[in-house]
Design a protein that fits this description.
The chain is α/β, with parallel strands linked by helices and 442 residues long. The protein is 39% helix and 12% strand. It has an 8-stranded mixed beta sheet, sandwiched between helices. The protein is elongated and about 90 Å long. The model has no long low-confidence stretch (mean pLDDT 93).
């Protein structure tokens, strides 16, 4: 008994759809197996050949029309997966245009890195601070945000001679080969940058991933000798054992509460959705042959960060999260960032070296921090030279965010430490009070 024509057609459509899905899955598996060789073309041609062979086998002994039908899903799958092999952005590095309010200088460091540098000299009429201040931004491997630039101008307005540079591969700095992106290279770049200033030891303010670089610099005696005083603000994990530490973040952030970011997203384009997704899952290495490093930087947009931006603000600020950057200035090297993070996860404990640090340091912790508290308190426990800890109420991970008086409060805490003056906030948590701090889930 034969099935009615409509049911036979439905069955064929279902089989065709399953064939398309199967060929697409084969293509993705081959992308992983071939490391995305030749922009995914090697995987695409292999999957296409497999589809053609399967279609010929299925069509054997059929009428001419029957022999053609198995090729329909092959053509559909080939068209669908071909979009993963076609670049939609330039494959050579496109640098953001210079900012209108500060000159972009490019320095070649003794490490071989060529970095974009921003200098905010002390404002006229203000007492000049004797020690230069170097800012290590978060990311890692992204541009210094416009929001951060505003904060640096505020510090310059208080007499600081402020320098910031974008890590190699991010912002307006030149790319490195993928294997050169390591946390050790970042520490060496900091030492080389301070040497390039020719002003002796510098005060250093490290934020987020920049705080990790600074922490590891304090554990390296040769680099630590170049640091006059250090502020470790909202650090991530300092080494492999710390990265494995389980714990809790601070008070609730705006993640899941703030409106979804708007604007263009690379992850809405099949090529970059596949590339970034497989890299994030660890199925492709950051240096994959599917997309070039430069292409990935050119493609990635601020909206691709998703809820990461919201996680840097308190839940109470979910409806008023500021725009951190402009589309023209934003630049993020996702592959290099993941590569550096992996080298941190793979590194042994630096606690023994950090325990010998003698560089005066301060730790800054946000009330609504998205960072694991044990990452922060681990530094306090390991580094005997941390002289004070400043728990910043009412702010999230991005403490100087332009809301209310948050910038001014952060600047007051920073100035008090760098000038060896009494702090406007209590020293909290203390080294002996870490356990109580963690129990209170502050």
């Amino acid at each position: 008994m034969s099935l009615p024509v409509p049911l036979r057609l439905l069955g064929r459509l279902i089989l065709a759809l399953l064939a398309v899905v199967g060929l697409a899955g084969l293509f993705l598996a081959l992308v992983v197996l071939t490391d995305g060789a030749r922009s995914g073309l090697a995987a695409w041609l292999t999957a296409l050949a497999a589809g053609i062979i399967a279609a010929l086998w299925r069509g054997r002994g059929r009428t001419r029309r029957g022999r053609l039908w198995p090729f329909v899903p092959v053509v559909a799958a080939a068209a669908l997966t071909a979009s993963v092999c076609v670049s939609t952005v330039p494959t050579t590095r496109q640098y953001p245009p210079d900012l209108p309010f500060v000159a972009t200088k490019r320095w070649s460091l003794s490490t071989g890195s060529r970095v974009a540098v921003y200098h905010y000299p002390p404002a006229a009429g203000t007492p000049r601070r004797p020690t230069p201040l170097v800012y290590l931004h978060g990311g890692p491997v992204r541009s210094v945000s416009v929001l951060d630039h505003r904060f640096l101008r505020l510090l310059a307005g208080q007499g600081y001679d402020v320098y910031a540079y974008e890590h190699p591969g991010g912002g307006r700095s030149d790319l490195l080969s993928m294997e050169q992106y390591t946390i050790s290279r970042s520490v060496r770049d900091l030492a080389a940058f301070i040497d390039r200033l020719h002003k002796g030891p510098a005060d250093v303010l490290g934020f987020s991933s920049g705080a990790i670089v600074l922490t590891r610099a304090l554990a390296a005696p040769d680099t630590a000798a170049r640091v006059h005083r250090a502020i470790i603000a909202e650090p991530g994990p300092m080494d492999g054992p710390t990265a494995l530490t389980s714990g809790q973040p601070g008070r609730p952030s705006a993640r899941g509460l703030a409106p979804a970011p708007t604007g263009a997203r690379a992850t809405r384009v099949p090529r970059y959705a596949v590339a970034f997704g497989l890299i994030q899952l660890g199925l492709l290495p950051p240096g994959t042959g599917l997309i070039t490093q430069a292409e990935g930087v050119n493609a990635f947009k601020a909206a691709d960060l998703g809820s990461d931006t919201a996680s840097a603000y308190c839940a109470r600020d979910a409806g008023r999260i500021p725009t951190e950057d402009t589309a023209e200035n934003f630049s993020f090297n996702a592959a290099a960032s993941l590569q550096i993070q992996q080298t941190i996860k793979d590194s042994p404990s630096i606690a023994p070296e950090l325990s010998r640090s003698r560089t005066p340091a301060m730790l800054m912790i946000a009330e609504c921090s998205s960072q694991t508290r044990q990452w922060q308190t681990g530094i306090l426990a390991a580094d005997p030279a941390v002289e004070r800890t400043q728990y910043m109420p009412g702010v999230g991970h991005h403490m100087w965010n332009g809301l209310d008086d948050n910038n001014e409060r952060a600047a007051a805490v920073i100035t008090a430490f760098f000038q060896s003056e009494p702090s406007p906030l209590p020293d909290y948590p203390t080294r002996t009070g870490i356990s109580a701090f963690l129990r209170d889930r502050r």
